[in-house]
Amino acid sequence: MPTPATPRRRIAHLDMDAFYASVELLRHPELRGQPVAIGGHGEPSRRGVVTTATYEARAFGIRSGMALRRAAELCPQCVFLPVDFDEYRRHSRRFKAAIATVTDRIEDRGIDEVYIDLTAVQGIRVDRGAPVARDIQRRVLEATGLSCSIGLAPNKLLAKIASDLHKPGGVTIVDEEDIAATIWPLPARRINGVGPKAELQLEDLGLRTIGDLAAAPLSMLVARFGGNYGRWLHEAANGRDDRPIVTASEPVSMSRETTFERDLHPHRDWQALAACLAELCREVAADLRRRGYAGRTIGVKARYDDFRIVTRDQTLPGATDDAATIRRAAFECLGRVPATRRLRLLGVRVAGLARTGAGTEPRRGAAGAADAGHAASASAAAPAPPAGAQQPELPLSGEDRPLAL
């Protein structure tokens, strides 16, 4: 419990509203109020998925990760625009710089969201912190022309849930005394860390809301999910989370992936697949060298034409940032992917990263040149629910983040 010497924490989660789409509307104000989706080359007749969509498009059922063609079927009048990551990164830097004028206690969670420790900010005890949250929204709007939603709570878990409750442009404050009325009626999946598999298992137990989960016996959760994850579910449902704000973190993996214009058969289209895989390896190797990292675990991700995903990886004796070494390992991994169906997506991932100048000597060889054009992702080390034998997969945070391996 907080004491006068350690005041109750005030943690905010700031989430930009439909970030990519909102940036595009700055450049295309004539599209305001219309259904707009961002993704791929901006042409629904070509391969690609929706990265994000305006709230008008979401009303038609369009969601992140949906195939562009499916989005066009749901909303024929939807306007499709291509992604422009350089522009989104520019606005991301701007909104984070605006927050930094209030405090430097910021945890970067990706291109469109941050956690902020406001505990020591002047005025945070006034009106439960609402004036400080509104001031941050104003600074972000002035710096970018964009709106954001903020959840304010004693911890990161509650702040994350709260920021999504009144979008767009909302400020939602949740304290311990608000949990029963505001948090417990929500579906259990609203807890960041409860994925689709966990949700199904909870439904099997008759636990559909966060309140159901909070009232469930700890022994039942441990028996079903194991000690670590079962205890974490119990703590999370009761609004308890002592994770600190992490102001600096190291990436744990880097990846590149691409969606094909047409499905490729593992045998009949082997030359095209091989060329694509080699190019992805060159690109991720260039990413590693540019950022000063090497990695030991090389992985391949493949998505079949029925949207099922399979991954294979192997761990090398030493860390590498060499394109040829990564390529050899990636092709070995691809050889272990069942050649049962056509492929619509292929990706390469390097994990187990260490800085090349921080005690790890990378294995070097012929360096390959990198080309642009494929989706890149760098996964940062971040606190997560405790690992357990039956722990389901964790969802990505941030509505606009590209899918990682």
Give me a quick take on this structure.
The protein has 405 residues and is α+β, with helices and mostly antiparallel strands. It contains 13 helices and 13 strands.
Strand runs, count: 13
Strand order of the largest sheet: 5-6-1-7-8
Distance between the termini: 39 Å
- The count of helical stretches stands at 13
Helix content: 25-40%
Q: Biggest sheet: strands, sense, closure? A: 5 strands, mixed
In the predicted model, the low-confidence regions spanning at least 5 consecutive residues are 358-373, 381-405
Instruction: Compute the average pLDDT.
Output: 87
* SSE order: EHEEHHEHEEHEHEHHHHHEHEEHEE
Radius of gyration: 22 Å
Oligomer: single chain
Shape: globular
Strand content: 15-25%
Structural class by helix and strand composition: alpha+beta
List keywords for this structure.
405 residues; 33% helix; alpha+beta; 13 helices; globular; single chain
Could you describe the 3D structure shown?
By secondary structure, the chain is an alpha+beta fold. Helix content is 33%, strand content 22%. It has 13 helices and 13 strands. The protein has helices spanning 19-27, 55-58, 68-74, 85-100, 130-144, 156-163, 179-183, 196-204, 210-215, 218-225, 227-237, 270-291, 323-335, and strands at 11-16, 36-38, 52-53, 79-81, 106-108, 113-117, 148-153, 171-173, 251-264, 293-304, 309-320, 343-355, 375-380. Strand 5 and strand 6 form a beta hairpin. Helix 10 packs across helix 11 and helix 12 (270-291) packs across helix 13 (323-335). It is globular. The model is unreliable at 358-373 and 381-405 (pLDDT under 50).
